[in-house]
Amino acid sequence: MRKVIKLMTVAFLTVIFLAACGGNNNEAANEETNQNKDTGNSNGEIQVVTSFTLIEDMVREIGGDKVELRNLVPIGTDPHEYDPLPDGIKAATDADVLFYNGFNLEGGDHGWFANMMYSVEQDWDVAFELTEGVEPLYLTNEDGKDEEINPHAFLDPTVGIQMAENTLDALIEVDPNNKEYYEENADQYLTALKNMDEQYHERINDIPEGDRILITSERAYQYIAKRYGLTEGYIWAIDTEENGSPEQITSIIEFIEERQPPVLFLETNVDPRPMETVSSETGIEIYGEVFSDEIGKPGEEGGTYLKFLQYNIDMIYDGLTSN
Questions:
Q1: How confident is the model at residue 83 (pLDDT cuts 50, 70, 90)?
Q2: pTM to 2 decimals?
């Protein structure tokens, strides 16, 4: 039912937008849109739409002044479930290229991003899933069976490398005339991401083995736990499901009492009360906040993808070596 409502919402917003354009202007608007798809805007920039802020930042780093960006999901809004606004729908209609995470972050084949694409009749050939080529990890049900893909792969810097390479390939495909420009930007960016991967390895290996236990509210850190050798503990699997139920609280308390982690962590975008309850019941302090679904605000902590990654490893390392 929720998916049907979302689809109706997107369709309704599209009707409002088309009506606002005026019937007599439809032909001219369509002609202008087609011209934009071929040539970009009047400044020669290609029109790019991104699904959420982390991808927006990545495209900005590689696309530089050759792209004009319009991001859909703003900071502070859940990218799992979103209803595009009329100006976002217009941007998607006019876009030369669209980038999205995939791995169900935007709701999957029947989620808000796919519904928007169909509603504006945008060409899927110019929509690029940046997690293509990444090996997915799965959230499991109570019986331990794979249930759905964990969308938070970008918390792992090596996944960021794959996403950046996919971004580069897509920009070159859409705008081959600026191939060398994109490659130069990407080379610097990829070097920084590879250095970040090395830092994650070195610093996590420096944590005493018995203290490499990462306890968070959501199971967003599955990818970095597997990559870098952390033991993960969490209250709930994903934000779109039940969060902080008595059964979940009991389960994580038992896990903590068995493993005795140095500290607990809280994500920047979740309700703190379940983790506060866990901290009170176990006597383990909440050391600080870490990023999961989104980067920070511009100019603040974690305000770019690279700063997001740096902030997280600083917080995790400092917390797990604080005792």
A1: very high
A2: 0.85
